[in-house]
Design a protein that fits this description.
It is a single chain. The chain is of the alpha/beta class. The protein contains 21 helices and 19 strands. Helix 2 runs antiparallel to helix 5 and helix 4 packs antiparallel against helix 5.
């Protein structure tokens, strides 16, 4: 054990212990020896007491037949009671206790009837009493290990579950959690043995199988920590609290649910070299009824509130049944097999185009700055999340390796690939593909074998058991993802329940700040997928008469399109009646006093005529962009770029990202043509442009 010299009793190292090795020091050697001997005195005191009590017992009952019968029955009764009371302890201790009581009561009975010095009774006492007392001292000495630590009082339980010689070195108790640090016997047991004993420990504690979990010490394979959670705090449905970072970057974490201790369950899509985190590819797995699709909707419902990401989503099996409320928020929705295949080809083609763009501007991987307009005026490149619902159908009708190449290469291109399916078995997803997905989100599954298709061995050994839920606890899940600490891999979480009204609200509220496809990605996709991409369906925004918000969602009336959300801190006051600060050095002005006489009149500009400018809708803003391009052409310009349009942004009142996306659409429709200069596009005369 760390902190204690091997082979030295802990009292030697206790500075507070009285005696020559502690701070007391004034008690002398005799007091020190007495203190050391105290734990071993009880057997000797009992032996001496038995011998002393035999003298008055002989004087009272010597030669009495009635006393003989009574003492014999008492001796037998005490021995039997000792044997019965020891059934909960080890067999060795039970036998030792019974023999000690039988020997002691038998000698006392004989000494009380015949006299303690009669015949061999005196010799038996002088030899047997010290011998029996010494055996208990030996047991007590052997219960101390080489490091001076006493065996755990829970040794009996640990022995029962196959962890003999294991010691509980420390224990911590929380309102709904107990944590035990275990010291395993070096060279005899390993954390793998603890993992195998977890089901038996759950039975011993009378809790659910996945309520007992284990984490290992990364620096010492002879140590492990067992956590027991007796009460399920996730059994009540958790309503979605609203977007965690409205208008923020996709680099910010996505909140998908809560762990059993109330901690937020988080996902990160882009990588972060400063945090040592790679970009994420994710497998979402769970049987029918486990809440897998609802969890996916929760993630996408968060993603579409971020400013620098686009989503390509596919569901050839259920079409609009799952993705329906999200369709207005998606850059591309593939709802049949032909468009799904086209999306896969577009992804393959986008990877080299996006990596070339990143290399051109000096980015080693995607970061939020990539989505901003670059130094040469070129439009930025938003992150791309490619989400494939019911991916088993896609794999079945294409190839079991269809995602392998994409998963191996897409991370460096600022793309995260997500596949959602019921069972990631080898017959549906190749082992090469599974190896390329470093993260998994596993809901209830049918059996332990299914869990092993997506969860790593470390999580399963630590106690993760999604097969115990099956479809009985929708939303319960285990999250093993980049950025998630390993201590949470075997901790159950529950995903939020996201209402459809919230998804409609998010689609409308964040439409103006949501990114559109950049020219590089759009061009590569158009070349690979053709009309499947260029003529992809754009779903209209839903009507929101009451603008419903999610449960617990704060009022977002203070949203500013360019600067992001307006945050109010505690103590901020929006009232007009503000008390002045007496310490700010300013002059106190009595609001009730009369105004001073007007001495000077300054002429002000006249208020402009007409009603205040209103914010254009999506279609009106696009029409304003087309009209502006026609004006540029009439002026004789041959080249334009996003910066030219931004000079007239008051016409459509949209963000720079939105303008860049519209320029990309003009390239796809043939109204603009790419040039050798980044951020500049040649105007194609309208009469020769391709619709």
């Amino acid at each position: 054990m760390s902190g204690t010299n091997q082979g030295v009793h802990p009292l030697h190292l206790d500075p507070n212990h009285p005696g020559p090795y502690g701070r007391g020091g004034g008690g002398g050697v005799g007091e020190y020896l007495l203190d050391r001997a105290k734990p071993y005195l009880p057997p000797w005191l009992l032996a001496g007491g038995t011998g002393i009590l035999s003298l008055p017992a002989y004087a009272l009952w010597g030669g009495s037949a009635a006393a003989s019968a009574g003492l014999t029955l008492a001796s037998v009764g005490l021995t039997a009671a000792t044997w019965w009371a020891g059934k909960s302890t080890t067999q060795q201790r039970r036998l030792h206790s019974a023999i000690t009581v039988a020997a002691g009561t038998s000698w006392f009975t004989a000494a009380a009837l015949a006299g303690p010095a009669t015949g061999p009774l005196g010799s038996l006492y002088l030899i047997g009493a010290p011998a029996l007392a010494a055996t208990w001292n030996i047991r007590q000495i052997l219960r101390v290990n080489a490091d001076g630590q006493a065996n755990s009082p829970d040794k009996g339980l640990l022995e029962k579950v196959g962890l003999a010689k294991t010691m509980v070195t420390s224990a911590k108790a929380a309102p709904n959690k107990a944590t035990f640090d275990l010291q395993l016997p070096p060279g005899e047991l390993t954390p793998d043995d603890v993992a195998k004993a977890l089901p038996r420990l759950a039975g011993a504690f009378k809790v659910a199988r996945n309520a007992v979990r284990m984490t290992t010490d990364p620096d010492d394979s002879s140590r492990a920590t067992v956590t027991v959670v007796p009460t399920d705090l996730l059994k009540n449905t958790v309503a979605f609290p609203g977007p965690s970072s409205p208008g923020g970057s996709i680099a910010d974490p996505i909140v998908v649910g809560i762990y059993e201790d109330g901690t937020h369950a988080l996902l990160w899509f882009p990588g972060d070299p400063t945090a040592g985190r790679n970009a994420m590819h994710l497998i979402v797995m769970g049987m029918t009824g486990s809440g897998k699709s609802e969890g996916g909707i929760t993630v996408l419902g968060e993603v579409v509130t971020r400013r620098d990401v686009i989503v390509w989503a596919s569901d050839p099996a259920k079409a609009e049944q799952t993705l329906g409320p999200l369709l207005p928020s998606l850059d591309w929705a593939a709802l049949d097999m032909n468009s799904t295949k086209a999306m896969i080809e577009a992804l393959r083609a986008s990877i080299p185009a996006r990596t070339a763009w990143l290399a051109k501007y000096g980015y080693k991987q995607w970061e939020p700055a990539c989505a901003e307009t670059q130094s040469d005026g070129a439009p930025g490149m938003p992150y791309l999340v490619a989400w494939f619902e019911e991916a088993a159908k896609t794999i079945r009708e294409t190839d079991d390796d269809v995602f392998t190449g994409i998963a191996q290469e897409a991370r460096s291109a600022g793309i995260s690939l997500v596949i959602s399916l019921q069972r990631a078995s080898g017959t549906q997803v190749s082992t090469d593909s599974r190896a390329s997905f470093g993260s998994s989100w596993v809901f209830g599954v049918r059996d332990e074998r299914d869990a092993g298709f997506a969860l790593p061995d470390e999580a399963l050994d630590a106690g993760a058991a999604p097969h115990t839920w099956k479809d009985k606890k929708p939303g319960y899940s285990y999250l093993v993802a980049n950025g998630v600490p390993e201590t949470f891999w075997a901790t159950p979480a529950r995903s939020y329940l996201t209402p459809t009204d919230y998804l409609h609200w998010a689609a409308v509220t964040f439409a103006d700040i949501r990114s559109t496809c950049d020219p590089i990605t759009a061009g590569a996709a158009a070349r690979a997928a053709g009309p499947a991409f260029t003529k992809r369906t754009r779903h209209p925004l839903p009507a929101l008469p009451d603008a419903p918000a999610a449960a617990g969602q704060a009022d977002l009336e203070g949203w500013d399109e360019e600067d992001g959300p307006l945050h109010l801190t505690a103590g901020d006051d929006m009232d007009d009646d503000v008390e002045p600060d007496e310490d700010d050095g300013g002059e106190w002005i009595d609001p009730e006093q009369a105004l001073p006489e007007v001495r000077t009149i300054l002429p002000l500009a006249a208020r402009p005529a007409g009603p205040p400018a209103r914010k254009l809708g999506q279609q009106e803003a696009r029409a304003a962009m087309i009209d502006l391009l026609a004006e540029f052409e009439d002026e004789g310009r041959t080249e334009v770029g996003p910066t030219d349009f931004m000079e007239h942004c008051d016409r459509f009142n949209r963000s720079r990202q939105w303008v860049s996306g519209q320029v990309a659409d003009m390239v796809l429709t043939g109204r603009l043509r790419e040039t050798d200069r980044a951020g500049r596009y040649e105007i194609v005369p309208e009469r020769t442009s391709v619709a």
